[in-house]
Structures are given as structure tokens and as C-alpha cells.
Design brief:
By secondary structure, this protein is mostly helical. Helices cover 53% and strands 7% of the residues. The radius of gyration is 21 Å and the shape is globular. It has 13 helices and 5 strands. Helix 3 packs across helix 12 (270-296), helix 7 (126-140) packs across helix 8 (154-171) and helix 10 packs across helix 12 (270-296). The structure holds tryptophan (TRP). Tryptophan (TRP) binds at residues 10-12, 14, 45, 48, 135, 138-139, 147, 149, 153, 156. Residues 10-12, 14, 45, 48, 135, 138-139, 147, 149, 153, 156 line the site of tryptophan.
Length: 334
């Protein structure tokens, strides 16, 4: 398939925080093999991050950390377009235009805005409010066909589709209509303390989440503390969300089926099982952690990758941005 005819996948990754075991096993791990069938763009969305006040040095460092993680986790920069959002001005340009095609009524309904504004009551800025419009611009700039997203971003993708449809209705078929990308395998990893909820970067309870940078002793301690139930059987059951989650993690990490995992631990206690899962996870993560540390020590390499990615993204975005500008009536030299 030629580069041009491949469908486009776009994902935006917030540079705040370290990726979690949940986002690795459930999403990022499966992105590596997409590059043969799709043109894949993975954008570190630093412009989204400043909707919440950031320390500049930390934001810069976190962006590099995230880029290094994406590469370490298998996204080959030769096969994927990896870049910082702030280095491709087309994002901001399209976002402004789309702001003028998005209704306040639509933004008022966004549940993430409501949540974030109650959390950051001292800084409910306009950027936080129009965040979904920037996200729509990210996606629509590239004629994106598929967007890998979690449940928390579905509403934003719906809004993006509404705005794209509205724009296309007025000006003709300018934007491709993006669809959510549902990974054919992606595991849904739950919190270790709250196995009813997806594992997230929750600031409230660090024991709920395995961060990919966690040291082996930290990982094992968190697994030892994982919530289970009062029974003693290690098997998949609707009444055992904690055990189900640990079995799912162990199965993902070892490649064994759930049934194989169940029989491996049959008759053993929860304590032993939890330690074994922790050890398996920390062993699995070790090479990725080493690679990430190696990459982060080479800032000039990371900056070069980001610059090359930004140049490619700029080139891919240019025709769509030019069409949009012409459509709305801006003077153009084209
Ligand atoms: N809003 C997304 C999140 O918080 C990040 C994001 C920004 C994104 N732009 C995007 C995700 C475009 C998918 C596509 O996770």
C-alpha cells in the first residue's frame, strides 16, 4: 500500500504523567503493529496540557519523557509520526476556525469540562472550555479515519464528528469523518484498589495504579496490596473483580490463556498469587524501562525525532488547512 492510500490513525497523548500499565496493555502495546496498514500519528498534546497551569520546566521534561516512552514501548519513529503538538501551528490555526463552528451549548454538555472545572475552580479558563475543539482540530487536520480512544474521550470524538459534519454541510466534503478505533484485542485493566474502575492516573491513590516507571519493589508492593475478595479461589468469576483483573494482567504479561493462569495457581493462596503477578509485571517492564532511560539521556536524539515528526505532520496537515481557509473565505495565494 502506498503511503498516500493508507488510512490515517491519530492519537493525542497528554504529556502530564507517566503512562500506566493499563494504557500500555490496553492500548499502546497494540499500536506498534498498526504502522504497516495505517499512517499513524502520535502527538504529544502539550497545548492541551496548559489548560491546567503547568510548571514550564516540568512540562518540557514531561513531553520528552512521554516521547521517550512511546519510542521505548515500540513505536518506531521511522514508521510512525511522533511529534509535539505545539511544533505544528496548524493545530492552533484549525482550532480557531472550528471554534467558530462549535456551539457553546455543545461545549456546555462536555462532562470532562464539568469535572475539570470543579477540580480547578480557581482556573476555569476559556482553553479548558474549548479543549474539545482543539482536539477536533487535531483529528480533522489529517483526514483521520480512526482514533484510538478510551471511554472518557468518546463524547469529545462525538463532538468532533458533529463539527466535521456541520462544516462539510456548509462547505462540501472537506473533512473525513473519524471513527473510534477499537483495538481487536486490547485488555481493559482495572485499578488495583478499585477493580470496578479502569486503571487511571488517579492522583488520589497511587496504589491503584502501576506507572511504567515504577521500580520492581514498588510494583510488587502495589500488587501485594491489591484488593481481592474474601474467598480463596483464583478463578475468573463475576463476583471477583479484583482476582479477574490480576488474572487478566498475568495473562497479558505472560501470553498464557486465562484458563492456563487459573490452573497454574490452583490451590495456591492469594498472597503468593499477587506476588507472582507483581514479579511478572516488573520483569516484563524492565527492558522497556531500560530503553526509556537510555532514550531520555539522549535529548538531542529525541528533539531530532520530534522535529522530523513535526515536519511530516506539517506537510500532511497543509492541504486540509489550505482547503479550510479557502472555504471560509480567507485570502489565499493558492
Ligand atoms: N483529550 C485526550 C485525552 O485527554 C488527548 C487528545 C488530545 C486526543 N487530542 C486528541 C486523543 C486527539 C485522541 C485524538 O486523553
Amino acid at each position: 500500500m502506498s503511503e498516500k492510500s493508507k488510512p490515517i490513525i491519530f492519537s493525542g497523548i497528554q504529556p502530564t504523567g507517566i503512562p500506566t500499565l493499563g494504557s500500555f496493555l490496553g492500548a499502546i502495546k497494540h499500536w506498534e503493529r498498526l504502522s504497516s496498514e495505517y499512517t499513524c500519528l502520535y502527538c504529544v498534546v502539550d497545548m492541551h496540557s496548559i489548560t491546567v497551569r503547568q510548571n514550564p520546566a516540568e512540562l518540557r521534561a514531561n513531553g520528552r519523557e512521554m516521547l521517550a516512552w512511546l519510542i521505548a514501548l515500540g513505536l518506531d519513529p521511522g514508521k510512525n509520526i511522533l511529534y509535539y503538538q505545539s511544533q505544528v501551528s496548524a493545530h492552533a490555526e484549525l482550532a480557531w476556525i472550528l471554534n467558530c463552528f462549535t456551539y457553546m451549548g455543545e461545549l456546555n454538555r462536555m462532562t470532562q469540562f464539568k469535572e475539570k472545572s470543579s477540580k480547578h475552580a480557581e482556573n476555569i479558563n476559556a482553553g479548558l472550555y474549548t479543549y474539545p475543539v482543539l482536539m477536533a482540530a487535531d483529528i480533522l487536520l489529517f483526514q483521520t479515519n480512526l482514533v484510538p480512544i478510551g471511554d472518557d474521550q468518546k463524547q469529545h470524538l462525538e463532538l468532533c464528528r458533529d463539527v466535521a459534519g456541520r462544516f462539510n454541510n456548509i462547505y462540501g466534503e472537506i473533512f473525513a469523518m473519524p471513527e473510534p478505533y477499537i483495538a481487536p484485542v486490547g485488555a481493559r485493566i482495572m485499578g488495583l484498589q478499585t477493580p470496578e474502575n479502569k486503571m487511571s492516573k488517579s492522583e488520589e491513590n497511587v496504589n491503584d495504579t502501576i506507572f511504567l516507571s515504577d521500580a520492581p519493589d514498588v510494583i510488587i508492593r502495589k500488587f501485594k496490596r491489591a484488593v481481592t475478595d474474601s474467598g480463596n479461589q483464583i478463578r475468573v468469576s463475576p463476583e471477583k473483580p479484583g482476582i479477574n483483573n490480576l488474572l487478566a494482567i498475568y495473562s497479558c504479561v505472560t501470553g498464557k490463556t486465562l484458563a492456563e493462569c487459573e490452573s497454574e495457581f490452583a490451590g495456591q493462596g492469594y498472597g503468593h498469587f499477587k506476588t507472582a503477578v507483581g514479579e511478572a509485571v516488573s520483569e516484563m517492564l524492565k527492558p522497556y524501562q531500560q530503553e526509556q532511560s537510555r532514550l531520555i539521556a539522549d535529548a538531542s536524539y529525541l528533539d531530532k525525532i520530534a522535529a522530523e515528526g513535526a515536519a511530516k505532520a506539517h506537510e500532511l496537515a497543509a492541504p486540509t488547512l489550505a482547503k479550510v481557509k479557502a472555504a471560509v473565505g480567507f485570502n489565499t495565494t493558492l
